[in-house]
Amino acid sequence: MKQVPFERIGRIKKALSDDALPGLVAVFSKMNTDDLLLIYARPPRRTATVPGTAITLDAFRSASLTEFDGPVLGMAAVDLIRSDVPTKGSMFCRLDRVFRNRGMVRELRETWTELANHVRARIAHLAEHHNDSYRQRALAEIAAISAPHRIAALPDDKRRGMVAFVPERDLVVRLSDIVPGPLPAGYLAPDDQVIAFEEARSLIGIPQPASYSVELRTIVLRSQLDDEFGATLTELSWAFYRRWQQTHDNEDLRRAYGLALEIHLGKGDVDDLCGVLPSRDFDAFVRTGAGTFLYRGPLEGDDGGPFGDAAHRLSLDDADTELAGSTAPVRFSLLPLRHAMAVSTPATMWCDLGPILRRVGRTEILARNAWLLTQDLLDERRQREAYEVTTEDLLETMIHCCAIYSMTDPWRARQARRNEWLLEAYETLHRVLELLIQSTDGLRRSYYTALDHWFGCGGKGADVARSLSAMVAVLESRPADLHRHDGPDPDLAGRAQLLLGLGRALLTMLRGGGRAEAYEDLIRPTSERFESTPKVVSRAADMTQPMDLLSVPFWSGFQRYAVIVDAIRRTRAHPIPVRDKIDQLISGIDQLNRGFRLIFAPLHQANILSCLYERTILDTRDLVSQLRGGAALEVELRTSSIAPDRDGSGIVFAVANVGSVAARDVEVELFVSEAFELLDSSFKQTLPHLGPGSDHRFRFAVRSVSDTETFPVRCTVSCAGEHDRQERTFEFVMRVTGVDSGQFHQRPNPYVFGLPLMEHRRFYGRRSELQQLLSHLADRRPQNVLLRGARRTGKTSLLYMVQAVLTDTNGRSGVRKWFGIQRSWHDALDSTRPVVLDLQSIDWPHGTPTATTFYQAVLGTMSDARLRSDESDRLLGEPSVTGTQFVVALRAILRNARGQRPVVLVDEFDILDRIAEKSEFYAPLRHAISTVQGVTWVVASALGLYKEARDYESPLFNVFKIVPLSVLDPEAARRLILTPWEAVSPRSRLRFADDAVETIIEEAGRYPYFIQLLCSEIVDYVNTTHTRYVQFKTVLQVIERQMMIPGSAAWEHFAYMWDRASGVGKLILLTLLSHPGAMDGAQLKATVRRHVVERAVRGDADPLGDYDESLLRLVVVDAVREIPGGGYGFGIPLFRRLLMHRGEREDLEAVADQDLAQDPPEAQRA
């Protein structure tokens, strides 16, 4: 728990002179020095004494805050400009209090207005990189901080009786405007930011307050415009009372008495107040506070104290007679006393005292009164029984108290005792749970025990990981009860399951075995996803509303954490220079540190978030140290679940070298465990070499014998370092999942291969490539793109996705939302006109591509997209079209396009590589592309155009930006395998073991075509063999029995790769085939050369003149993969398997030698 830095803030306040305050919106400090950074809405006066560096809000947006690690004194709306600024919790103190304490209220209102104007002028730019909730909150904050200055400027008669205000229009709604009749239709616009008393909304006829609504009470009290406040509340209470007399709606009676009580509670001390019995005479209660005020302890004197002579004060011990004889139609109390307050007559209405105390600004006192009352009731069993207090009500009360203490302003606590009271409140919560544990049994007892561990994360000296482990262990001990919904409380099993799921997810992340974004749906709270902090506190103050296990503030903090961690994960895996990787990781650590300062949630949840941040910061720092020292190994558990008692199960670790040099003698040792039996010969596996940027999977065959739903998995990973061995131990969690053993049902086959994807919801991965393509269009730049990828890598599908995004004008079809396209890009994308041209579908003259046919195909497709001109129409009928005529036609089309940018998406461009005189075609094409910059070209090519674009002597050199389309990232590959089954009924759904999924991904080389092909074959296999569960061995059986046979789709595809390879290319493949792992580039070339020389298949001076060209072709078609720092290996393991099988049927070396003899080196061809 963070300590509140009172002394540091005190020094900052002391350093601020009065003349430095006008226009000041924030002060940033350092923990170890007195340096300050002051942020102004406008430059400070020249005569002002500024105790530090002063900058304006414009400069603040890009200023570095890394060094300013101390508390912030500022306006709460400053985080609208910089989201990494803490505006809640112990590291933030409100600057507006300084203004008020110095009597500078007018200057405060003016500063608020300047800040509001700044945000209003830039809201579109600021909202660009945020979700819609940011805009909602920004509009609400603008209204809140601009309103005080505007209200102060209103005449007194307009402010009198004001119950709502619209600052953008200086529109006042007075009580006389809405009583007795409603407002005229159209008086309020739908998009008005209405600041109102929450009770008055029903009279005004506006919707219930939104997530970021603004309460009029807060505005008038903070800006000291409350002269008419008491009178307005009185009138409003009478308005509800009179309406109740007419309608007999008890909600109106509750509001009437609540408003009247608010008037009196706002006058004085409410310490220890726990109940109020108002007089039945409403007029007397409003005027004099007539009624009985109940306190939890003995009182001095028996007068009405701060509530007037008509108020009767009693301690709870002396209130039996009063409670029994009271005729009050409405009774108020803290939650534990609600049954005692409703004993006299069923007609008596009970109301929670909490919201009233919150509205008078006594939220912290509410928490203290409820907490101390709970302690009294825990100590006095007779008193609990006398007042019919339930232990469940005590539990709910303390959960709310802990939330209030955690999330209210720590700077308002008396005598700086907030942290002390907070820890004591959690201790009282523990006492309540102990009582519930002792008085229950079965699943209920386990649930309360688990809750005790859950809230134990907020106790003094809490060990978060140990508490979560204990919670999970308790719930896992009752697996059968977790699925029962026929008991007295059908929701209990569901709540226990949710708690178990949360515990497992958090433990997995704390142990480094999970991606945070994968758990966002589980961790998302069930209440509104976005709420302002005041609304969260308001929810906590209303103790009749149950609190979620995870709060909205936790969810916001977790989302922030997940984004940062995902960026760090991508940096770790990205094959970039080590220096760049270190810089990006250090930037990630800085973001983590700033995110850590923003943690704000109930204490037990804040501690969990803190542990997540601290662990990630530590791990990332360790990685940076390793990167600076050489090899750096990262480990990920790829199998998060395992089936019980199955011989074919496995535990798979992915070890990646993210360092700058190769890791030697890599060793992975699996710890012995009672949860599984090892089926391999050893707990240790080794790898002689792992190049930088490379990864390798280590699979241990095991049989799970665990009798729990989860069990820990530990391993040690080491490698030879420069001076000694580097070694790290990792711990993960695996789930034991049951297997369907019922009647077999035929499985539908949802996998489609060989056809391009048209439906965006079935398109996985490729987000970065899509963003690259679209970013140029969004910036309206004349950048042409070459999309380079081997056959079957999804080039056509990606072109269709570009078309789908561009045609999703105004986001109507949801494609842009699906791909997360920034809203600020929409206008530019809407101004494009996509044109898709598939060169494979063209009827070429005599089957041979020509320049004329290409030009006409482009112009014809553009015409189909309503992009035409008289010149283009004329050329479509000409027998021959020149490059110059093509340029003229394109320019004419642009003149008629009315600002629309044509985007020509060309598929299968390699067909044009067969044009007889390529140079005579490519030169005019370059001229057309470079000259007519209003047309954007996105061209897909496997090899031909790629070679031209990289060849310095080619006319197309440097015309295109090359975007390589490589393999899917592992997560997208998993989604491609598993997501199609989500829409299938449970009885027909096919389940995959985790290590089976990993095997599919590895064997298919992460290529979408081969993943779909292999999965389709698996579905056919399980339907034939009635296999209910796809295991590791199932995948291998399908590969061997259905794919490695002549005539299969895989066999034909890979045969094409082998047959099209040159003689040297075939020899390269055979050399790699005989080598167990990656092969160094120089060693590979030397081995091929030795073969050619020894077999004397070529007598040339340079027998390997075409080696580089042959190797490039193999790499481009992904038959061979270049491993960063590790040489070369097979790009697709399935291809390697096929060559091994084919080598059993024919002499592949003889085939290669024959091709070598018939195919002279490139050097001699020239």
UniProtKB/TrEMBL annotation:
Residues 762-913 form the Orc1-like AAA ATPase domain. It comes from Virgisporangium ochraceum. This is Orc1-like AAA ATPase domain-containing protein. Signal peptide: none annotated. It holds the Pfam family AAA_16.
